[in-house]
């Protein structure tokens, strides 16, 4: 044994390594199959019928049941971690997310990101990086796009930093920019098989729903999930790196909360827009995740029988539902996630 | 945030909500694939060759290796939970179960139940509900049927209750009512590849077999399994709901015990009848499940080389094998499961 | 309940049951699918692009992405456990391993072993058994072969034992005996999608690489993995059998370390040779597995753009990288695995 070559391993990018306009082709494309789908259903109490049944999806005008929208998101997101968030201090937000095409078993996904903003922090040690990430399938069709921003460390506190560029991001995806999957038709939607009778017209803006159910999460589960999406961030796996407890991947909380929201939102079938999201507090094994939702907006769509509903999805680890922030506007300590998304629902 | 609408979530049915003759179409059909099969083999030490190998199944006259019988059972059963056992106090028994058609990867399963019996308990707070559940595939062919009865709470102790109707259930499925899968032929059965030399003729009625192996169960595993079958009962997942410990889904114990029974019953290949079953005591993470079997009956079948064997399968969490009940006829505290089923075995 | 028939269960073979030249056809063939692949990626942080993406594999001249080499190894190995290592005291080594054909989703694998060596130990209680195991697919084509030797107990200390036969095993598979998969062509290899720029020419013999990342392992995970490969050894599952802690299947450590080695060896795509391996110390849940590698040798191959690299892969549970043995030549207590293999890498 002679020379040690740690430099062959990926150190991740630091703040000074990014430039606005830079394009990053993320590594390790992935082919998905019924295996990923079965695992998704084992990891989360996912019951939305369109993602559970080929016949139900067929009756809604789709050729088959697609991979869960959030599974597609996690696959695309996971690829960006080695390039974007390996040296991240915090995952700050999401915006302008749109699902553009369903992902089918057999598809191969890869991810590409463009750096769209950079802002050094006044402490001189960190900065904020904005990237717009696109997930592409084997035909180079975009299946998903979203903006994410993270706080990233500098490798060299004295490194020159660029002029700040802060992108102007939409507060929410406008309803007319949502992409409805080809052929989707809810005009003969089977509410009995879907599990609940509540249609788009039954939800009012401002209405809140306590999803009641909870899941106490385990180390083995969140690691299985996070690895499945090929997310390599050390904090999720290595207790010697983070002796105070492995941090659960924020996407695990998103998927758990969304699956729990079936109970009361069984007909919020397809996620088509991600308006924003905050991982308000960290989640650890042993926490019991519960969820509540608030209807933020509603819109019509050109597809037959299909309405869009904008939902706030809040995941908590205790406390009463419907509580979000304290008097100073800070998230309460029991709030794990505050997500803002658009879903498609039968009229 | 304004009106709270908890009523959009499913409260489950209470005793007074059932009527004899009522038909319940259960929600969320499910398409199964090689993913469910792989997960079944990761969750249980399943080794019956017919469910492990397309070539072995082909040599037995089947087009391919079907989904494990008990996986099919769990999928069908899981759908009934939100409608039948969400407010159940206890799962009391099974009867008249028959597997009617193999389930293949690609099949979509749904479940329908008929209420066939109701009996209020004298305490005025609970009652017993009997349902006959049928699992159907995408061609509306029945793949499985069974009777289950549960003790269910009343929402309103003063609610009017119907006249008792107690169904007359067979003590065991008669051998001539067992359905042999189309094409099944054990006349050229390969005992070497199956793993044991013992054929139908080698087992005697009254014979008992200690399956020797054991598995110490973990929280993550039983939750993965229970979610995979889309069984939503809170007691399995939410430690804040049940601080004394998450109760392990009884079907997890059934599958674990059946898989352990490979060692001594490797040739009891296909389950075709469920005569009865009791979840004698609760199972928790940390328990070590072991199993023993007793040969209860044997019968011939019209299929070439195929015999039927009726087995008692007992799962325990400690203690010596072959002990079941105390002098008062009560299950010993270490007994988890007492199952009575028919399997097909090479002559 | 009458006669107890424990003899129907498999007691495993004891040292005196083996004869040189004996052929053992192992039971329970297995068909693999996308499910096994997805589970492999959930259980290990596997990111080698050729096993992740059909399109990447296609661009390398293969018809699709094969099942991970080590998953194929585990399936073939698992079948041998009931016949070879159920009464093993220790798994002593591997040699002359070669991957002969990729395994594709849909393939059915079985295993056959030949006893090639026997040596009784001087204590009279145990002996060493050498077997050469071959994995075969549904067309009876060999996909994998390797020699393994284990120390096995005698059932009867007084049993007659054969004359010692110690096979003469190659220290390493010669590079010209490595089998390159049909069609493999790395001449247009995409280093960006693969995740690292380092090609065969960038690695020097003697070079060492610290793979940096670590995974703290959990009981549920190693049991899921070990069951998936149908490995039935009690020590991995039954805490009443081994109250000091369930021993983690050595193959779990191999796969974990290999997956971690992506970081620094992302282009060591296909494993084609297993020269040797020692499970230096036992691994238990709670251990954090890390890995480092050393380049032992390099060779050219006849395939376009394809080089072979011989690597030592060391898994540890703590301590500094690049430390292996103490002054007396014994493995340090933190070393879990010392594996010697050949991989294929783009020139």
Automatic annotation (TrEMBL), chains A, B, C:
Give the top-rank taxon of the lineage listed in the UniProt record for this protein. Bacteria
Q: What start-end ranges are recorded for coiled-coil regions in this protein?
A: none
> Which Pfam families does the entry mention?
MC_hydratase
A GO molecular function annotation here is:
lyase activity
How is this protein named in the record? L-erythro-3-methylmalyl-CoA dehydratase
The uppermost taxa in this organism's lineage are:
Bacteria, Pseudomonadati, Pseudomonadota, Alphaproteobacteria, Rhodobacterales
